[in-house]
Amino acid sequence: MEPGGGQVVVTRFECGSLARLLVLLVLHHRVKRDVARLGEGLIGSRVVVDWRRRVVLSVSLWPDIASVYSMGGVPRHVAAARLPGLLGIRTTCGVFCFAGDWRRVMFHSPVPARSPFEPVVP
């Protein structure tokens, strides 16, 4: 694992009802703007909604673990982190670390590890 090669954060929100899911989506949209503006290093993020199961997955890309920690300096994110529990929304989150070039990971090839967050060098 190479923590400096990039991080992917996946947060799961099990909303249980359509109303809570819609509230979460509005809240997430507002928080996302602040994280992009005030956080350091956010490369991008997307939300995936499983409407049938009332589940939201938030996936964000970060260049390194220090930039993930910068979310702690975003006041709206800190405040919003408490709301799912108060609304009865169950959450879990995972931080995934860069494991190396896909050829190294899948085929044990002796290819140097190059993060996809860095420019491709010939």
Describe the structure concisely for a colleague.
The chain is an alpha+beta fold and about 120 residues long.
Structure commentary:
Helices cover 35% and strands 25% of the residues. The protein has 122 residues and is an alpha+beta fold. The longest helix is centred in the first third of the chain and has 21 residues, at 18-38. The protein is globular and about 50 Å long.
List keywords for this structure.
4 strands, alpha+beta, four-stranded antiparallel β-sheet, 5 helices
Instruction: Specify the helix fraction band.
Output: 25-40%
Strand order of the largest sheet: 2-3-1-4
Morphology: globular
The sequence of SSEs as H and E is: EHEEHHHEH
- Biggest sheet, in brief? 4 strands, antiparallel
- The tally of beta strands, per DSSP, is 4
Structural class: alpha+beta
- Overall mean pLDDT: 91
How much of the residues is beta strand, in percent? 25-35%
Task: List strands and helices in order, with pairings.
Elements: E1 7-14, H1 18-38, E2 44-50, E3 55-62, H2 65-69, H3 75-80, H4 83-87, E4 90-97, H5 102-107
Antiparallel strand pairs: 1-3, 1-4, 2-3
